[in-house]
Specification:
This protein is an alpha/beta fold and about 325 residues long. The protein contains nine helices and 17 strands.
């Protein structure tokens, strides 16, 4: 039985319709795909993003903010979305398992991720959250929210960005490992985990959103996973993406792809963190990582789709 950590983006849960019903429907479709890992005999560990959800929740908080009902801070909003999405996935995965004749427990864990309060990311916000905006809306948004930083996001529109410190450790990983060892499917590190700084015996939340791929890589390392699979909206990793000399990668070693990371060839806040998270996992464990599309899961399991990053040198 292979232990496989699967990282899902927040955009795989929320499309254009931000209602709970629409997101639950999307999660159910995702669960029907993920159950293929269990049918294959693998031990599944699910992580997920929350960028769209936490951004939308912050907007709701700000809209209702007053002295009697003050808006919740970003770390608490992260915890709220982690609980909501975990709840949806818990029920959806259990239903998908039972539909396939599998009686297996599923549990979501509110996960806290330790970060360094001096991480330079706090001075350089880079993590996109919330909805996409058109170029013509940016000036008005900045006037309404002068403390926001808004940037263009991988050609898809403009989004607010917040600090995204690197995860140092996963606070609950001992408990998560016990859950995995018991054969239970955990939903963990939602939205990258709630960013916290340790001060004595206290864990203090910080105003940030951790990249879910880096946290997925960290949890995969800590629980001795056999594979990290990062599912996204594209079928794999490309060199020179969107250009005439575009090249799709099927198999590549870490040293080769590191050269392209160092050359800043991958989109910031999009493919770059996915590739870096995969490389970190492979370097630390020696086990392979895969980046591919959710719709290709069955082919990824068979090894025919997605980009596999390995430690040993392979033909590119």
């Amino acid at each position: 039985m292979a232990k496989i950590v699967v990282a899902l983006g927040g955009n795989a849960i929320l499309s254009k319709d931000a209602s709970a019903n629409a997101q639950i429907k999307a999660v159910k479709q995702t669960a029907k795909v993920l159950v293929n890992f269990v049918k294959n005999g693998d031990q599944l560990i699910i992580t997920h993003g929350n960028g769209p959800q936490v951004g939308n929740l912050l907007l709701q908080q700000l809209a209702a903010d007053n002295n009697e009902n003050p808006a919740m801070p970003l770390d608490t909003c992260g915890a709220m979305t982690q609980g909501a999405i975990g709840y949806w996935f818990q029920n959806a995965m259990k239903e998908a398992l039972l539909d396939n004749g599998i009686n297996k427990d599923v549990v979501s864990v509110v996960t806290q991720t330790l970060v360094d309060e001096n991480d330079p990311a706090f001075q350089n916000p880079s993590k996109p959250i919330g909805p996409f905006y058109k170029a013509g809306e940016v000036a008005e948004l900045k006037a309404q929210h002068p403390d926001w930083q808004i940037v263009e996001d991988a050609g898809r529109g403009y989004r607010r960005v917040v600090p995204s410190p690197k995860p140092l450790a996963i606070n609950e990983y001992h408990a998560i490992k016990q859950i995995v060892d018991a054969g239970i499917i955990p939903i963990v590190s939602g939205g990258g985990g709630i960013p916290v700084v340790k001060k004595g015996n206290q864990l203090i939340g910080t105003e940030a959103v951790i990249d879910k791929d880096f946290s997925a890589s960290k949890i995969a390392q800590l629980i001795d996973a056999d594979q990290l699979i990062i599912l996204t909206s594209v079928g794999g990793v490309f060199y020179h993406y969107g250009k005439p000399n575009q090249q799709e990668l099927k198999e590549v070693d870490v040293d080769e792809i590191q050269k392209h990371l160092d050359a800043d060839e991958f989109a910031k806040g999009s493919m770059e963190p996915k590739v870096q998270a995969a490389v970190d996992f492979v370097r630390q464990t020696g086990h392979p990582a895969v980046i591919g599309a959710l719709e290709d899961v069955q082919e990824i399991i068979r090894g025919t789709e997605g980009t596999t990053i390995k430690k040993q040198r392979v033909r590119v």
